[in-house]
Specification:
With 309 residues, the protein is of the alpha/beta class. 18% of the residues lie in helices and 31% in strands.
């Protein structure tokens, strides 16, 4: 049976996993970035400045900005090696140790003798980080590129900064291709906020954890105990052999997706409960669900792989 995260102990915490500050190319200093997210009702963020030479390979110490109702997870956006299009890799790493060794990345251009994207991602995961393939659509990522990152926990399926700045926010095609090849990955929505455009507070994860402790959040992220959103909320998701029942905030569409063309949808006004048949998904090794509200905002469950058959 898939883990019912809504039945787990603890509570949901709202967090952004991809954020930048003046320690790299962001417009605001770390303390102000943290203040703004806390003021907007977030429970945690990961400050993930660009881990490259021009910025002195920052893993920013955000521990001074933690409080009883807001915390931070140390991290960085890692860069090393070339993708198939010749551009530098972007790998999101949340939960890095402060002494994570710098890569050989003196600029945002690939150079010979660098670690590959796969190698730096593996090194980050081995160091304890939650690793995600960042903004596949914006990067021009090929499926072969994505396939090479064997250390990834997740794919970034919505990036708000990429939505605002270039209308390339998605990673669904990349994720679904890897899922259909047998990779068991989760999905995350992020901001990639730099605060030089209105690129903040648009995509987040809701993590079910025992406490607001950074280590507890990191354990929950790695376990897939979260969902991603740009607005709506899931209140319950129950998978059986034949159906899925979804409880949520008011939605106009409740959708289930699977491999290839497999999908099912219920539409209506202010839907807060829907049960969808799964007869079209007999051959799909994975399923995931989406809700869409009247403003066009969306939320997504992580894929499930082990529902009753």
């Amino acid at each position: 049976m898939p883990t019912d995260i809504f039945a787990l102990p603890g509570q949901f915490y709202r967090g952004n996993l991809h954020t930048h500050s003046t320690r790299s190319d962001g417009a605001l200093p770390p303390d102000e970035v943290c203040r703004r997210y806390r003021a907007e009702g977030y429970d945690f963020i990961a400050l993930t400045d660009h881990f490259v030479g021009p910025f002195d390979y920052p893993i920013v110490d955000t521990t001074p900005y933690r409080s009883d109702d807001f915390t931070t997870i140390l991290g960085a956006e890692l860069h090393s090696g070339a993708m198939e299009n010749g551009e530098l890799w972007h790998i999101l790493a949340v939960g890095l140790p402060p002494d994570f060794a710098p890569s050989n990345a003196p600029s945002f251009r690939p150079i010979p003798d660098q670690e590959t994207g796969a190698q730096i991602a593996r090194r980050a995961r081995d160091a304890g980080a939650f690793v995600a393939v960042a903004h596949p659509e914006w990067s021009g990522l090929t499926t072969a590129d994505a396939r090479s990152i064997d250390a990834a926990h997740a794919v970034e399926i919505y990036n708000h900064g990429c939505a605002v700045d270039c209308d390339r926010p998605h990673g669904f095609y990349t994720l679904d291709q890897l899922l259909s090849e047998g990779r068991q990955l989760t999905l995350c929505a992020t901001d990639d906020a730099h605060f030089s455009t209105p690129d903040a507070f648009g995509g987040w994860v809701m993590v079910k954890a025992d406490s607001l402790d950074p280590d507890a959040l990191l354990v929950a992220l790695k376990a897939g105990h979260f969902y991603a959103s740009t607005g709506p909320e899931f209140h319950g998701v129950h998978w059986t052999k034949d159906t899925v029942t979804i409880e949520c905030s008011a939605a106009i569409s409740v959708i289930v997706q699977g491999q290839g063309t497999a999908s099912a949808c219920v539409r209506g006004d202010a839907l807060t409960h829907a049960t969808l048949p799964l007869d079209r998904f007999a051959g799909s090794p994975w399923l995931r669900a989406t809700i869409i509200d009247a403003a066009g905002k969306r939320a997504w469950t992580n894929p499930v792989f082990d529902r009753p058959m």
